Amino acid sequence: MAEGLGNRLRDLRAERDLTQAALAEMVGVSRKTINTVENGVFIPSTLLALRLARALGCPVETIFSLED
Amino acid sequence: MTGSDIDTADRLSRRRAKLLPALAILFLSGQVIYALGPHGASPSVDQLKVAAWLLWAAALLFLLATGGGPFRSREVRALMDDETTREHRGRAYAVGFWIAVATSMGIYLLTAFDGVKPREALHIIVTAAIAGALLTFGYLEHRAHRDG
Fold first, then answer.
1. In this prediction, does ipTM exceed 0.90?
2. What pLDDT digit, counting tens, does each position of B11-28 carry?
3. A50 — contact with chain B (CB < 8 Å)?
4. Does A50 fall in a domain?
5. Interface subset of B 76-95, CB within 8 angstroms of A
6. Which of A41, A54, B47, B76 could form a disulfide with B72, with the two C-beta atoms 3.0–4.6 Å apart?
7. Which domain CATH number covers A32?
């Protein structure tokens, strides 16, 4: 996981029965990008974080949070 | 953008993650064989080898910079060049830069004891930097596809 950044993307996607490919299509990125964000390997840009939030229908803070 | 575009980009991206490091190893091996082989026997053969190296180096740089997929749709090319790919490319360029600097410093040190011609030095630096950048890019892309 990226240091200091927690994310619930995998859980939220699974709750909505979306595959990585389906979510990737909704936000206009590759499946690889969704995978790296879920695995905490890649910290997305603000733009992508907002697109993910819109696609999942939740505030961006629900997906990403600071780990204290 | 369709699911088919996502699948196509995914497939091509995985292929690229395997292909680029393989090309880098071939490129490096070819230059090692060239360096260890006989020189000066025929100037035209030497010139041909240098021209082939230059073309190969340019082609590899083009592949790294563009990400491949020139005959695919704009959507697929955009997916193959999204923000993770651009970050990986940036990190690969950085590794290539540091390899070029380290190799240059090594050659500079070496020339204190043994002469190296400028063209040979440039050949080594460019080869090492391109191969290092491609291997780094391939590794990062391969890792990004894992556990998917």
1. no
2. 999 999 999 999 999 999
3. no
4. yes
5. 78-80, 82-85, 87
6. B76
7. 1.10.260.40
